[in-house]
Amino acid sequence: MRWNCLLVGCCGLLTVLAPAASGQSLEELRQSLPAASSESLDRLQQGISDRTEPAPELERLAPAEPSGQPGPQPETVNPNRVSNQPTEAATRLRSVSATAEGFFIRTVGTMPEVQVSRSDGEMTLEFSDAAISFGLGTEQLPVDRYSVSAWQLVQTAAEPPTLRMTLTLAEGSPDWQVSTRIDGVTLVPRDVAIGDVPDVGAALLEPVAVPPPAGQLTPSPSMGFSVPNGQVTVVIDPGHGGRDPGAVGIGGLQEKQVVNDISYQVADNLRQAGVNVVLTRDSDYELELEDRVQIAERANANLFVSIHANAISLSRPDVNGLETYYASSLGQRLAQAIHSTVLQTMGMRDRGVRQARFYVIRNTSMPATLVETGFVTGAEDQPNLRDPAWRSRMAAAIAQGILLYIQQRGA
Length: 411
What we know:
This protein has 411 residues and is of the alpha/beta class.
């Protein structure tokens, strides 16, 4: 990989159900499976059947529940709608998340310009010269949160394009206060505590637990703390970008494709916990190493975390695992906190916490670490790094490691 990257990897353990859990032999399971699932059984025989979490494929093959027990619930229909048209725009909508204060609509590009209108049961936000990011779909939008039962995103192909966001409000929904900032739009209830705004169809909870969207971090109750909003600033540095793809591995998987996704989710997870997050780049463009350091220094950041994916020769697919780097004793504890949390969460091969003189962690004045999230050239890591669900778990683990360090050190 490029010389400015760290070596970190995940061993890509798959989640499967051992045949003993269903009382059947492998051969019996194979005979009962449809042809499309034979590959899952092959993986069972390759030494990963010791995992305790059932794989989705085998869970569906579990015997029917005993009489009197509730059976599988019917799948609910996602009420959200996204209508996207590829186009250039000054502002691009990247995500919508439920937060501890309400909702956060993350954007990149210029500060969004928003017009708000309200009618019975609906609120509409109209973004001028704005477009929807590629990959943002209905499953990334909140469902039935804080009295908002559905989100509809419609983008026009006009010049400049307009993005219309319509919120369907349940009965008794509060008046939402809309505020813009450089990285997005916040929606918070006016003249009412967020704890008094129920989820759609739910009774009032005291206090309301705010589960973030799938794959995002819910801080462990054992951590017993949340970060006072804005009192800790963490810079997240997605490696490479733009014309620089970073390492290229098996199947042409590019490092930047991996770290872009993980980094943005780490940022979102930390924001859920009240951390002020600065991204060195918030979309796919090339950025010099010196510029990354200067962004952290100008932000007066408390911590700096650079996220990469590792690589070695394509002739060495046997090399897999997690490596985390620091340049000085200042960043060693941060590296150790993230490394140990990721290992515990992801079950990866441990290649250790190491000292190195990578530019971005050597020239920053705050505790800094560089995390390599897996080998794009590794037979175990590459399938995981390509998997969006796995990347979400990795992002949550990195964020939790950062929060653990903040708790322990009072950063």
